[in-house]
Each structure stands twice: as C-alpha cells, then as structure tokens.
Specification:
Order of helices and strands: EEEHHHHEEEHHHHHHHHHEH
Mean pLDDT: 84
Radius of gyration: 23 Å
Helix content: 55-70%
Structural class: mainly alpha
Distance between the termini: 41 Å
Shape: globular
Largest sheet: 3 strands, antiparallel
Strand content: 5-15%
Strand order of the largest sheet: 4-5-6
Length: 419
C-alpha cells in the first residue's frame, strides 16, 4: 500500500506550485523554465496572483457565528452573572470589549502583507513560546486550581498564552513546510525540525497542567503534517511512540483518571466530576425539537457552573433545540468548506497551508467542545469558538479569521483572465 497521500486530493495544495527556478528580469506573466540541475520549489505560481475581494460567503458565516455566540452568551449567562456581579449583562459587556479588540486585530491582519508576516514570524513563534514559559514564574504567572495557564497583565486582567500557541504552531508549520516542500524525503531538514517545534509547544502547555490543550495542539500539528505531504509511515511510527506516553500522562494524574472514569461511568460522582456534564446533557435534551427560546425559560442551563465558558453549547441547544443545533452545524460546516476551498485554490503554498491550519483549528475545536457538552468526550477545558466567554480565545479566533480572509484575497486568475 502506498504510504503517501496523493497530491491531487481535494485538500492537497494546488497544482500551480511547481518546480521552478526563481525568475529574474523576465517579462510579466512569462513562465519560468524548469532547470534540470537546479530545482527548487518556488512560492511563485505559474500564473499571477490576482488581488481580489474577500470571500463574501466566508465573511457571512463568520458574522453569523459571532451573532449566534453573543445571543447565546446573553441568554445562558444571565443567572450566573446576576449572582456573581449583580449585572445580567456582565459577561456580554466583557465579551463585546474583547470582540471589539479582536475585530480591530482581524482588520489589521486582513490588510497586512503576508510577506511581512513571514518576516516577523520567528519573533511571533519565539515570543509565544516565551509567554508560555512566563506562566511558571511567580508574580507573573497565575495559578488556578493547581494549573498555571495564565499570566497577569496590567489592569488586573490575565492572558492565556496556550491559545496563542495554536496560531504560532500553524504559522511555524506552514512556513517550514513551504520552505522545505522539495525536501520532505529528507527528514533531517523537514520533518525533524517541525516535530521538534511541535514537541516543544505540546510539552510546555502540558507542564501548565493543561492536558486537553496540549493534546489539541498535537492533533493540530499532525493535521499540518498530513496536508503538507508527510508520508503516512511517519504517522504510524509516531503513534507507536506517542500512544504509550499519552496513556502514561493520563494515569499519572489522579484528576485525569477521575475524569476518564466519569466519562465512562455517567453515574460516578454526580455531584462532582459529572455534575457539569450531566446538567449539560439535561439542558440539551430539554431543548427538544424547537428549543425553549432565548427568554427566561433556560432552567437547566442555570444549574451548570460557569456555563458561559466551556459548556455554553448546552445553553444554545436548550434555547434553539435540535433544529437550531442542525442550523449551527450547517453554518460551521459551510465556514470550513469555504476555508478548504480557499486553501485549495490559493496559488501560494504558505498561504494555502495557513488557511487550512486556521480553518481546521476553528472547526475541530468547535466539534470537540460540542462533543464534551453532549457527553461524547471526556470533559476538557477547550472553549467553543465565537461562543465561549474569554478574552484570549476571542482574540485568537478573530486573528485566525483575519488570516483566512487575507488568504482568500489571493487566487489564481481564471483561464480567460490569464489569456
């Protein structure tokens, strides 16, 4: 069986990225001849890039997801916000503030030249890794329930560097696999450096006692490896090495063992480990076919501690019912399909990998959160993109959307336009 996936698959990079030598002093639109002695993969496509308007379907899907998220946050968090801050709109106001900052950063990202992003990429990746390390320093890092996932920022706020690590990992892999596209058969210069970068981010986040995010980073990195064209035999070798380590990580932590037991036995510790999940499942069931509406009838949601964070999908399901949930997955699926089409059509390998990574980040994280809320996965601390309250998560998702929209503006012109 062939252990490499075909370059003509739907998710493969476009055929316009060909083996060519860099062109110099040639007329515009003239194709470069292939040298038989000095072949390198060039990010310059055979056909010129055409700066087009942003993908309207993608933008509409992002706006719909943001709107649904804000409405759901308002309906789900009122009761808890009143008890916590005596203000039913407390979480909505905070979310709007973070969303405004995120939208501003998204607009800047859309307008930035991707070549400039690549020039500062080493600083972005190294800076993110340093931020992850700062969580371990007393006075800078903040500990909650034994986990050190946050750093203090001026003004009394906090920042969660592991969220930025997701984007940093995507940028790192996209840049490396673009530069080493013609040397994937030489693991010393392509696969090993990428694996080292992935390993460092996974380990530093794991040491913050954030097992779920570290495993998500690992999944995201493996997706980048696959779409870049790494042969499948490397994945099999990795699984042989990684599965025993993952099992060891789980069973060396009493908390993670209890979470696993709670997932396998729903009646275990119903007032502790299974309290949030069981109430979330009751809320989803209570939504029925058409839901209870975004009024004051969300009785089950009010019983979920900190529902505005990781279990907000239960609030949406109770309010909108089965029909609303199907509608949400249609919008989310449309967003992901548009992203994959943008990645497949983009004539630049780096941009293509970047769009794929950012779209996969949002789509897979959304599915994982919904699976946790419905009891299909063990409980994790993975937020629901566009819905969950949280400043860092909102900003990172807006940056990811900005990068995808930026890529959508670079497409190969049609055959007629080229001629």
């Amino acid at each position: 069986m062939n252990d490499s996936h075909s370059g003509n698959d739907f998710y493969s990079l476009p055929p316009y990225i060909t083996q060519s030598v860099p062109y110099q002093n040639q007329p515009q639109n003239q194709l470069t001849n292939v040298s038989s002695t000095n072949k390198t993969y060039s990010v310059r496509p055979e056909r010129p890039l055409n700066r087009k308007k942003m993908d309207l379907g993608l933008v509409v899907s992002i706006v719909l997801l943001l709107g649904l998220g804000l409405i759901t946050l308002y309906a789900s968090s009122q009761s808890y916000a009143l008890r916590l801050k005596d203000d039913a709109l407390y979480f909505v106001k905070r979310q709007l503030l973070f969303l405004f900052c995120g939208l501003a950063m998204m607009v800047v990202t859309v307008c930035l030249d991707m070549n400039y992003i690549r020039r500062i990429l080493p600083f972005l990746v190294i800076g993110t890794f340093v931020l992850c390390l700062l969580t371990f320093f007393p006075g800078i890092g903040q500990e909650r329930n034994g986990a050190r996932r946050w750093i203090n920022v001026p003004g009394g706020g906090t920042l969660q560097p592991s969220e930025f690590a997701k984007l940093a990992l995507i940028l790192f892999c996209a840049n490396l696999f673009d530069k080493k596209a013609d040397r994937l058969d030489n693991p010393a210069v392509s696969i090993y450096p990428a694996a080292l970068g992935l390993f460092l981010f996974v380990v530093v986040v794991y040491l913050q006692d954030d097992f779920s995010t570290s495993m998500f980073l690992l999944l995201l990195g493996l997706c980048m490896f696959y779409i870049a064209g790494v042969k499948l035999r490397w994945f099999f070798a990795f699984l042989v090495f990684a599965i025993p380590i993952a099992i060891l990580f789980i069973f060396t932590s009493e908390f993670r063992v209890e979470r696993l037991i709670a997932f396998l036995v729903p009646d275990y510790d119903v007032n502790g480990m299974n309290f949030q999940v069981n109430n979330a499942k009751r809320a989803i069931t209570a939504g029925g076919m058409w839901g209870n509406g975004f009024g004051t009838g969300l009785s089950y949601v009010s019983r979920i501690p900190e529902v505005q964070a990781d279990f907000i999908f239960a609030g949406f399901a109770e309010a909108m019912g089965f029909v609303g949930v199907i509608g949400y997955f249609i919008v989310l699926g449309y967003f992901y399909v548009r992203t994959m089409i943008i990645a497949a059509k983009c004539a630049d390998r780096f941009r293509s990998l970047l769009a794929f990574g950012c779209g996969t980040l949002i789509f897979f994280q959304s599915l994982m959160n919904c699976a946790v809320s419905s009891g299909a996965m063990p409980a994790t601390g993975i937020p629901l993109p566009f819905f969950s309250a949280g400043g860092t998560s909102v900003i990172v998702m807006m940056l990811a959307c900005g990068l995808i929209i930026n890529v959508s503006q670079y497409k190969t012109v049609s055959e007629n336009e080229y001629e």
